[in-house]
Structure formats: C-alpha cells, structure tokens
Amino acid sequence: MTNNFKIAYQGSEGSYSEELLKKEFSNYSFIACESFTELLNKVSSESCFGLLPVENSIAGTVNEAYEELINSGLEIFGEFIKKIDHTLIGLSNSKFEEITHVISHPQALQQCSKFLQDSKLRITPVFDTAGSVFEILETKDINTAAIAGEHFKNDERFKILKENISNHQENFTRFLLIGNEKLESNKENNKYSSVLISDDKPGSLLKALNIFSDLNINLTKLESRPILGRPWEYKFYIDYELQNVKTQMELIDGIKKVSKEFIILGHYPKANP
Fold this sequence. Notes:
Number of strands: 15
CATH architecture of the largest domain: 3-Layer(aba) Sandwich
Distance between the termini: 23 Å
Order of helices and strands: EHEHEEHEEEHHEHEEEEHEEHE
C-alpha cells in the first residue's frame, strides 16, 4: 500500500476510528464520513480503502456496518483491535452535578448504559462520538455532556467530567479494513470472514459446522442474523482461522454441498490482541 491511498472512516476529527488510523496509517490521508453508507459508497466509487467498526466486546456486532458490508461486495483486507476508553465530556464551565442530558453514538451509549442509568441521565443518539463533543460546543448547553475518547482531554474548550465510564473496563472494538483492490501486505493472511446461508432442513447447520470440525478449523465467530426481506430465515456470520489454501478449497467444496450459499468476505492477517 503506497501513501497515495486515502482511507475513509465513519466519524469526525477525534473519533476512535480516526485515532486508530493515525496510529496505523500515519502517512496516509483520511476521509471523514457521516454514515456507513457514505463510507462504503466512497470506497466503491473512489480509489480508496475504508475502516469499518464491526464488533465491540461489550455491545457485540455492529449490525448496520456488517449488513452494509455484505451488500457492498467489497473485500476485507485487514483487521485491527482498539481499546476503547469512554469519558464524559462537558463544556469548560460545565459541572457534572448539573448535567441532565448526554449525547453520543448509539454504540457508546450502549457501552456506558450502566453509568447513564445509575446517573439518571437522559440520552440522545447522534452519528458520532467525537461529533457529539462538537455539538455541545455549538449549542453551548452546559447541562448536556457527550461521550467520546480522550482526544479532547487537553482541549481548553472542554472539561472531562468523568473518566472510565464503560460498563466494563476491558472494552475493545474490532475494525475491518475494506476495499476494492488487493492490499499489499508483508503479513501472512491467516483469517477468513464469511457468511453462510444453510439449507432449511433439519441438521443442515450441524452438517456445515461438522465440516469445519473435520478439517480441524478453528472458528472465532459464529452468529445468526435474520435475512432482511425473508422473515424467519437466517444467515450466519462465521470467522475462522486458516492458512492452508488446499484446506480452504476442501472447505468450500464441502460447505456448498450442504448449504444454500457460502460467501467469503475476505482473507486477511489476524489482528494482534
């Protein structure tokens, strides 16, 4: 990957996505997007990659991101794990005792639900964590606070009202690097992401999973999700670790015999914890 490439992300300056990009791809330029749809459209139509948050260790799968990724036809080239440290941020003249309302991205609100409930604070979801901080600056509302990262800790316009407010301190988000063209990497591809739609017959899912077991393939994710527009039909997100190309071909041949569909979303290097 050369530094001519751009990487699109959902959020604004100071978001967790931007923090990760600055750490991992400091020589590249970034494109901020308001929604996952805008991000995926950018990657599909322009010569750039995208960074997509797909799973959190507290709140689980980011379903909107996963659904849009599957429908986009884009490929996964890498994954990254980021530690998430949520803080409650107010204006410089705000006091925690006077806060009645909190805004942030829905995932952040969910990950901090216990703190918000215990503090009896009214919540409003907005499109981005960092964006919520700029929103309270724009409204100048001293009774509203935002949940975001520590990017704003040394910004004199704001005050950190509470730190470490996640439901659990071991809070991590998994991001996927996606694109249209193959990404050059010196790391070994050892992980796959896929979608399985099994036959609507007794034991069909078990038959598919037995193929993974027979080939000694380790599953790292298995989750069922409803198929939109087809009530009571389900697809399965399956991530697994595998390097051997021959074994992968055996897996595909076997799965296709016992399922309706098996889609490979990407083959990429597994992220370090």
